[in-house]
């Protein structure tokens, strides 16, 4: 299905052509016709499926079809997203789609100056993209009034719930008078998500793209079994030997991220960092360097990299397996996007094997193991001794997304690993 058949204005169609969009992706095919007719939407679609265009193009076209002078400190459309990076990304995409029309697009998020955002909001805006926390600050200061909002989108709603934004969402909703056309996009579903959808949406059209918790069919998954202490060398060797040019590496801890970047630099591989301790400006610079190819590797923690769109990314490496199998799906969502091929490479030490099994169960696929000569993991006996004294495994089974629990289990695991390391150093 082509964009020209969807009745978009020639200016929008031209901009989409320049973005390289020829055909609609499955989520766009399903969502755009309903959204154009003004229906609420509940969509289960991962990042990478083209969901940003799926919700923003119908809004843009409807704004153009019914032109209005925007009032002071108001917006006609509001898009909420969980992180600054995602807000930036959505706003940039919309700016690309609207480059030949006269619509004002504004982004607001924490970590940036209030004053410059205030000035942008002052004269009103057509489309506002925001993180919930910063949006509430602006509302409380009287910089923004949502009473006459026409369009409302919740992007990555599951992440917003995970990050504890439920209270913020309810506060925002209390300031909206009429029911705007509302669309809720989420990669996963849960009881809490369904309850929220029931509150927010009116007779929504339901859209499901990909089975829940599945990864794109264009991603090749491989596992390299390797001992924890050999992972640094293995990463450097693979990048060099296979001549990987753009690699996003996921780690579980900021400390590991720092170590990996240091090691890669020593090996002459330009790498940048993206984790929660880094200032917003430095994360953005890292992302720009990585996207533009100035840096070959970006090493990131889960939260910092949430929702990042890095177009055409060929390689994602799980240096550490994630604590939750569901997070494997989120991480891998950065590759194999919009029909392109991607490679998902996981380094699995003996004590991460259980997580690997959970991942395989979740994605319903057995992942190919590649044993690189010289990197064979040590014997299993040591692991068995460790496993029998390991409470974290018990806790990890059957857990749901719960950041609180995730953190405490992660901390426990870190402590345990440190204890094991210290013990083996002392032996
Ligand atoms: P998203 O899921 O919105 O993060 O989009 C993932 C990537 O797919 C982004 O880089 C988009 O620019 C790209 N994209 C979205 N729609 C299309 C399309 N119809 N054709 C080609 N690429 C697209």
TrEMBL record:
Residues 227-378 form the Helicase C-terminal domain. Residues 32-207 form the Helicase ATP-binding domain. Keywords: ATP-binding, Helicase, Hydrolase, Nucleotide-binding. Residues 387-413 are annotated as: Disordered. InterPro entries: DEAD/DEAH_box_helicase_dom, DEAD/DEAH_RhlB, DEAD_box_RNA_helicase, Helicase_ATP-bd, Helicase_C-like, P-loop_NTPase, RNA-helicase_DEAD-box_CS, RNA_helicase_DEAD_Q_motif. Its EC number is 3.6.4.-. SMART domains: DEXDc (SM00487), HELICc (SM00490). It comes from the Bacteria. This is DEAD/DEAH box helicase. It comes from Vibrio chaetopteri.
